[in-house]
Amino acid sequence: xxxxxxxxxxxxxxxxxxxxxxxxxxxxxxxxxxxxxxxxxxxxxxxxxxxxxxxxxxxxxxxxxxxxxxxxxxxxxxxxxxxxxxxxxxxxxxxxxxxxxxxxxxxxxxxxxxxxxxxxxxxxxxxxxxxxxxxxxxxxxxxxxxxxxxxxxxxxxxxxxxxxxxxxxxxxxxxxxxxxxxxxxxxxxxxxxxxxxxxxxxxxxxxxxxxxxxxxxxxxxxxxxxxxxxxxxxxxxxxxxxxxxxxxxxxxxxxxxxxxxxxxxxxxxxxxxxxxxxxxxxxxxxxxxxxxxxxxxxxxxxxxxxxxxxxxxxxxxxxxxxxxxxxxxxxxxxxxxxxxxxxxxxxxxxxxxxxxxxxxxxxxxxxxxxxxxxxxxxxxxxxxxxxxxxxxxxxxxxxxxxxxxxxxxxxxxxxxxxxxxxxxxxxxxxxxxxxxxxxxxxxxxxxxxxxxxxxxxxxxxxxxxxxxxxxxxxxxxxxxxxxxxxxxxxxxxxxxxxxxxxxxxxxxxxxxxxxxxxxxxxxxxxxxxxxxxxxxxxxxxxxxxxxxxxxxxxxxxxxxxxxxxxxxxxxxxxxxxxxxxxxxxxxxxxxxx
Length: 593
Ligand code: FES
Description:
Layout: E1 7-11, H1 12-18, E2 20-25, E3 28-35, E4 38-43, E5 57-59, E6 62-64, E7 71-73, E8 89-90, E9 92-95, E10 98-101, H2 111-125, H3 128-140, H4 146-158, H5 166-177, H6 183-201, H7 220-232, H8 236-248, H9 253-264, H10 274-286, H11 294-299, H12 302-307, H13 323-331, H14 339-347, H15 359-363, H16 368-380, H17 385-401, H18 411-431, H19 436-450, H20 473-483, H21 490-502, H22 507-519, H23 525-544, H24 549-567, H25 573-586
Antiparallel strand pairs: 1-10, 2-3, 3-4, 4-8, 5-6, 6-7, 9-10
């Protein structure tokens, strides 16, 4: 190290007399200590929340910050308290009774490696501040978001015995949102996903691997039947071995999706729709990372599958109308059958289905037999799983958009569950043409039916042109963000989305605004899911070129704006941590002493 890099900082006599000095060397604030005959220099800003360390206590080789009492080994800066992070130290040299400090020593690791290492620590110890600093540091070092996402995905699937859960689902949602966000909000999104994975794994036992079978020579249909049988009897170990064997044998994404969607629809609407949504998010997450993650990622779905509640065992699906019996008739036997669906699909093989004009009215109506009939007619008329799933997903989005605020607050979750389930069914239908996707469509439609009273009376959905105020769309976006600052502005939020479109606003700008509104809050699992699913539905409706496209594509965004307004504002604690982490990474002062 060249001595030219050292700058005169303080006289040794003065330091010895006072024991400590705050100096600024080349713009870096340093706390210089004289302790046990040695001179030490550390960054004056406590890495926890920026308290001036020069005001700390030095004793027995330990520097203790006075704010939250984090302790640091004085010579190297390593902390005893991982939540606070390590403090940076600086080389010193004493010449001619003057202390010289090098304020810019080379880092032990390049920033990308340093922050990747810190991210691992943040995940392992569930340290929110460390996760914030490392996700910000990684993106500032131009690391692609997929790298930390892959780290968190691997961690979350390995260190959670109960398998895929809300944390990994949020991570997948956030990865899907990245391209729709402003650069600073991409950091917030990644921080949100990673911190929820860390939180979900905290205190959990690790997930011990069940290896694949040593043979790869198992016919696909046999593997599928074994897998379904294992899930049926809630045998997690056997199911994991089947699924890992399918991955190890190089089965295609479409085949892997078929295995999962078959088992996930052998009983209707598992765990209020969560299981299929988790599975959809697992497949979507794999689109952001390489296939080496498929094995652990898909195996982590087994625990939610085997522990799921089955809606055919729920009274609401049996009484006063036995919805399960209605489905069994169409399926051609038991609730796990597909023979009837195969016959309907065969009849429609050479036909092209066009949705009847009143299909949405039927799907949103109060006659489950009519709903089942319209869907069965559609399959017989050539409707693909993808087309039909999109139709039901639109009905599910409409339920959220029309949710009446006089309902119990918790019922927002009821319509939300149906919406994300229907969105997941559509995701699977795009991935595989497995006949079982039709079961998902029928079951999503039954859930839309069950939610009908939550639209009583229905909140009005603004029609295109109803709110053409001529206002600047940017001003409307600002107003929309404001609705999230106060309780209860649910209908106003939905109306502003409609006004934004009526005034010619760019959908990409609206997505950025909704995304910002989301990631600055302590948004819960469902709200994070809701926006991501709504943006996905908007994209699908835009691409579908339905004759009623302009009205249809607004519905999910009106729905999610209303959902967000119902759940915001929050305390924004996570945002406070994010702001502190940002300033600490930039070396800015935080604590005004
Ligand atoms: S322990 Fe130093 S600021 Fe919190």
